[in-house]
C-alpha cells in the first residue's frame, strides 16, 4: 500500500484544517459505495460520465480484463465537495478521486486523505513533467507527491459578437487592463453591463503564490489587491459591473453562463469547460456568436488567471492502490482525446492542437464561435499558467478574503478597510498555523 500523506507535510506548505462535515448531499449517479471487490475500482469525479470519463473507463477496462471501474459523479460545488469530504473521512469505498481548486486540495491533502505517489511518478519517465518544481504541475513536498494536475485551465475573455460589433469595438488580440476597462465601459449601455467580474488583477501582476511575501508573510498589503477591490467597487457603483448583490443572490459564481447567454453582459472571463453551455441550444438557446480574447496584461505582466488543475489523487485508505495507480497513469497518459469534449486540455497525450480545439468547440463550431480567435488565444499565444504551492492556511484565508470582498462589493465597506481586514486576518492565520 502506498504511504498516506499529510502527517509529515511541512506546515508552511500544506497547513489547513478539514472542516467538520455535517450531513451529506445528493450525488448524481452515486454508487452504493459498499463494494470491496479488489478488482473493482471506485472513482469519483466532477465531470459527467458521458462527457469523457466513461470512454476513458471503457478503454481502461479493455486493457485490463477482469477489472471493473465504477464512476461516481459529484457536482463541483460546496455541497458536492462536502459529500466527497464526508465520504473520504467516513471510509466510503473510494479508490481514486478528483479534486478541483486549491482550497479543496489543501484540505484533503493536509488531512492525510491522499496517498504519496512520488516514487511511482519518478519510476515513470512519461510523467517527468510532474517533477518540475520551477513550473509545478503537482503537489510536491520534499519527496512526496500527493496530487497530479490532469489539465491546464487557461482563462480567456469571451465576447458576445452582436454586442461587440454594435458598440464598434475591435476584437483585441493583445490588450492591457486599461484597454479592457475602456471596452467594458463601452459595453455597459441600454440596461446591460460590461461584464460580471474583473479578472484577478493581482494574479495578472504577481503570478503564483501571490498571497505570500518571499518570507512567507501575508502579501495582501501589496497595492495590486487594493487596486482590484477599489476598481471593482467603482465599476459596480457606476453600473459597469453586474451588481454584486444580484451576483450573490443568483449564485453567479456557479451559474455565470445563464446571464451571459441572456445577454445581461457582453464580456465574460471564463475557462474552456464553460464552452459546452454555448453549444447546447436546447438548454441554453441563443442566436449570437462568441469570440475569444486573451486575459489582458497589467504593467507588462501577463500571468493568466487560470491554473493547472483537476487533480487526480489516490485515497490513502484504499486497499487497491496498485490498481488505482494503474488507472491514474492511464488517465494521465491516455484520456486527452476523451475528456476534451468537457473542455479539458490535458497536460499529456498525443493529441494535436487542432484536434483539441475541435473537441473543445464541438460540432458545428463555426455556427457558434469565431474559431480562429479561440485557436489563437488558447494555443498559439501559449497562456502563462501557474499553480500555487505556498498553501499555509489557504482555505481559511480564502474564506476571509471572500467575506471582505463581498461586503466591499456590496458597497458596505470601503476597499481600504476591506483589504486591511484581509491582510490582518491572513497574517493572524499564518502566525497561528506556523506556531502549531
UniProtKB/TrEMBL annotation:
It comes from the Bacteria. InterPro entries: Bact_solute-bd_prot1, SBP, TAT_signal. Gene3D superfamilies: Periplasmic binding protein-like II. Pfam families: SBP_bac_1. PROSITE patterns: TAT (PS51318). This is ABC transporter substrate-binding protein.
Amino acid at each position: 500500500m502506498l504511504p498516506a500523506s499529510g502527517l509529515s507535510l511541512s506546515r508552511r506548505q500544506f497547513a489547513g484544517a478539514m472542516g467538520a462535515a455535517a450531513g451529506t448531499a445528493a450525488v448524481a449517479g452515486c454508487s452504493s459505495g459498499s463494494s470491496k471487490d479488489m478488482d473493482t475500482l471506485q472513482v469519483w469525479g466532477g465531470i459527467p460520465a458521458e462527457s469523457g470519463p466513461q470512454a476513458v473507463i471503457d478503454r481502461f477496462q479493455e486493457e485490463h480484463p477482469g477489472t471493473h471501474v465504477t464512476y461516481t459523479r459529484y457536482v463541483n460545488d460546496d455541497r458536492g465537495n462536502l459529500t466527497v469530504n464526508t465520504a473520504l473521512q467516513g471510509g466510503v469505498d473510494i479508490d481514486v478521486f478528483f479534486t478541483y481548486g486549491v482550497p479543496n486540495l489543501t484540505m484533503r491533502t493536509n488531512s492525510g486523505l491522499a496517498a504519496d505517489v512520488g516514487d511511482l511518478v519518478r519510476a515513470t519517465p512519461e510523467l517527468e513533467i510532474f517533477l518540475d518544481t520551477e513550473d509545478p504541475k503537482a503537489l510536491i513536498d520534499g519527496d512526496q507527491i500527493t496530487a497530479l494536475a490532469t489539465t491546464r485551465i487557461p482563462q480567456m475573455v469571451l465576447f458576445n459578437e452582436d454586442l461587440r460589433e454594435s458598440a464598434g469595438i475591435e476584437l483585441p488580440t493583445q490588450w492591457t487592463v486599461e484597454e479592457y476597462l475602456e471596452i467594458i465601459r463601452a459595453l455597459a449601455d441600454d440596461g446591460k453591463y460590461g461584464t460580471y467580474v474583473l479578472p484577478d488583477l493581482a494574479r495578472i501582476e504577481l503570478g503564483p503564490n501571490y498571497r505570500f511575501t518571499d518570507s512567507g508573510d501575508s502579501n495582501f498589503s501589496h497595492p495590486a489587491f487594493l487596486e482590484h477591490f477599489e476598481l471593482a467597487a467603482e465599476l459596480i457603483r457606476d453600473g459597469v459591473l453586474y451588481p454584486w448583490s444580484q451576483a450573490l443572490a443568483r449564485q453567479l459564481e456557479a451559474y455565470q453562463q445563464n446571464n451571459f447567454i441572456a445577454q445581461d453582459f457582453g464580456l465574460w472571463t471564463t475557462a474552456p469547460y464553460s464552452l459546452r453551455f454555448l453549444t447546447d441550444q436546447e438548454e441554453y438557446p441563443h442566436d449570437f456568436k462568441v469570440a475569444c480574447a486573451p486575459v489582458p496584461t497589467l504593467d507588462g505582466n501577463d500571468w493568466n488567471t487560470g491554473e493547472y488543475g483537476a487533480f487526480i489523487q489516490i485515497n490513502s485508505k484504499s486497499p487497491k492502490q496498485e490498481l488505482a495507480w494503474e488507472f491514474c497513469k492511464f488517465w494521465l497518459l491516455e484520456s486527452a482525446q476523451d475528456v476534451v469534449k468537457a473542455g479539458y486540455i490535458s497536460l499529456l497525450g498525443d493529441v494535436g492542437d487542432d484536434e483539441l480545439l475541435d473537441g473543445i468547440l464541438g460540432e458545428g463550431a463555426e455556427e457558434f464561435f469565431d474559431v480562429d480567435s479561440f485557436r489563437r488565444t488558447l494555443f498559439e499565444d501559449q497562456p502563462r499558467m501557474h499553480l500555487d504551492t505556498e498553501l499555509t492556511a489557504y482555505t481559511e484565508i480564502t474564506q476571509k478574503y471572500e467575506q471582505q470582498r463581498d461586503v466591499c462589493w456590496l458597497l458596505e465597506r470601503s476597499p481600504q478597510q476591506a483589504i486591511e481586514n484581509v491582510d490582518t486576518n491572513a497574517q493572524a492565520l499564518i502566525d497561528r498555523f506556523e506556531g502549531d
